[in-house]
Each structure stands twice: as structure tokens, then as C-alpha cells.
Amino acid sequence: MAAASPAGLAIPEAIARSTRRRWNASGVALLIVPALVFVAMFYVYPLVNLLDGSLRDPNAAGLSLTQYVSVLNSRRVIATLERTLRLSLLSTVITLLLSYPIALYLIGASRRIRTTILIVTFVSLAASLIVRNYGWLVVLSDAGPINQLLLALGIYETPVRMVYSEGAVLVAIVHYAMPFMILPIYGSLVRLQPSTWEAAQALGASPWATLRTVVIPQTMPGVYGGVTLSFAIATSAYVTPLMLGAPSTAFISQIAADELLIQLNFPRGSAIIVILTACTFVILAVYTLAVRRIGRAHV
Fold first, then answer.
1. Residues 189-211, buried b or exposed e (16+ Cβ, 10 A)?
2. What is the model's pLDDT at position 1?
3. Contact 87, 171 (CB under 8 A)
4. Which of 31, 100, 214, 246 has its CA 20 to 30 A from that of 164?
5. Which of these ranges, 48-62, 118-132, 219-233, has the smallest mean pLDDT?
6. 86 and 281 in contact (C-beta within 8 Å)?
7. Could you say which DSSP state residue 281 is in?
């Protein structure tokens, strides 16, 4: 019996590889379908519904930009939107500056300390936002520990009003967003090869130069993820400015909730939400382009 030629054996193997690729593609598609259905039902459809509602005018038939004109001509809404974006950007920068050193420390810390800090970080994610805000109300109150310390040191003679201010809102948002910044950066640092640090030091680079030219550029995907999450959390904040802020420090989400739930003006409330969403996407798109072109990171 003649032995099979190599060309004859290659044909069944090629068919088998093609079949496996088709099965793999089908399996991936089946895994993605539930996620796509979930996103379509709970994200795309509500956004489309909001967009459609914002284009409705109770006094006219068909689609109209009346609600957008009304919102953009409102000084109160524009001032609140500016405050929301300003505090969101500021809180994101502060969160990044506080979180990156913590993530760096975790890389060099002992296993016990690293595990403890990570457990505390994960547990903080499970803590109720309302409970956190009540904690900050106590800490920042006139009779709280910070004011008591300032009075004891003689820095102030009377308690300083800290709650119901932009500062209180900013502190609480940074506190809430820090785990969402620490974990992505820590994940990027973990994937960084130890030989990278050793090679930079062997070439005579100082620790600061190594951090600036080697470590930070290679951890930009983690920084990008953390900044995106932190900024989105800040712009959509509702409970925190409601509990720790004042009417003069309201966020745009509070005005939208007032229009939707109290005034029952659904077209105007929808227009406010659409404008906030559009501003958030534009800022994140500009940030993405900056990271890609200036930071030369693949995000």
C-alpha cells in the first residue's frame, strides 16, 4: 500500500484548522450576544429614548430644538454645567495625583501590606455612598475632628465652615473615585517587566527619570482607564453634591433630576442629560486623542 503524500496530509489538516477557526468565531459570537443585548436594552435604548424626548415640544408637532435653545439660554443651567465640568476635571486630576503614588507603593510593598491595602480598596467599593457621605459630614462639620484640631492648634478661633461647599463635594468625589483609579494603574504596573526598571537603572537613569520616561509611558493604558472612570463618575455625581453641597454648588445632574422628577418637564430634563452626555464624550474624545498623539499610548 502506497504511503500518503505530504500534500495529501496537508489538505485535511488545513480543512480541520479552518473548521476550528469557524467554530471559535461562532463561540466568540455566542459569548458576545448576551453582552450586546444587555448594552442595547439598558444603554442604547435609554439614550435613544432620551434623545427622542429632548426633541419633543409639547406645544408643537414633530421634532424640534426648542428644548435645547431653552437650556442653552438659561444662565443657571450653563453656570451649573460649567461648575460640574470644572469640579469633575479638578477631582480627576487630584485623584490621579493621589492614586499613582499608592499604586507605585503597592508594587514595592511586601505581600502582607499589599494584600491589606488591596482588601481595603475592594471593601471600600462595597461601602454605601450614602454612608461615606455621612462620614464626611461628621468629619467636616463644625464640631468635627478637623475643626477641633484647628481650634486646638490655635490656627482658627472659631470653627471653619467646611460642609455644604465645593470643597466638601470635591473631597468626597475624590475619595469615592480613588479605587477606580488605583486598580487600573496597579494592573498596568503589575504587567511591567522588572527588567525594565533594572535596564533603566543600569543605563544610569535616576529614579525620577525612570519614572518619567519609562514607567509612566508604559502604564498609560491604566492611567487612561482610571481617568476615564473617575471623570465619568464625577460628571454623573448626584448624591454627593446633594448631601455635601448647597444650592450654589449644585451639579447639572441635580437640575436634570429636578426637571424630570419635580417639574415633570421630561423634554427639558432629557435635553439637559443629552447635553451633559455630549460634553462628557467630547472631553473624553479629546483626552483620548491627546493620549494617543502626545503620550503615544495604544488606548
1. beeeeeeebeebeeeebeeeebb
2. 46
3. no
4. 100
5. 48-62
6. no
7. H
Output the pLDDT for position 6.
52
Give the span between the Cα atoms of 110 and 167, in whole angstroms.
35
pLDDT at 3: 52
Domains by residue range for the chain, with CATH: 55-293 (1.10.3720.10)
Q: What is the dihedral of CA 269, 272, 277, 281, to 10 degrees?
A: 170
Distance between CA 255 and CA 168 in Å, rounded? 19
**Site of grid cell 439598558:** 42
Residue 290 has pLDDT above 50, yes or no: yes
- pLDDT for 164-180, tens place per residue? 999 999 999 999 999 99
C-alpha 69/C-alpha 280 separation (Å) is: 19
Q: What is the pTM of this model?
A: 0.84
Residues pairing with 63 in the sheet: 56
- Give me the helices (H) in 40-128, please: 45-54, 66-72, 75-108, 111-126
pLDDT score recorded for residue 10: 53
Pair 170, 91: CB distance under 8 Å: yes
Sequence-ordered list of residues with C-beta below 8 angstroms from that of 109, at least 6 positions apart, any chain: 117
Q: Is 204 left (phi over 0), alpha (psi -120 to 50) or beta?
A: left
Residue 56 phi/psi, 5-degree rounding, is -100, 140
62 vs 60: CA distance, rounded Å? 7
- pLDDT: which is higher, 106 or 6: 106
Beta bridge partners of 56: 63
> What residue type is assigned to position 235 of the chain?
T
The C-alpha atoms of residue 141 and residue 138 are separated, in whole angstroms, by: 5
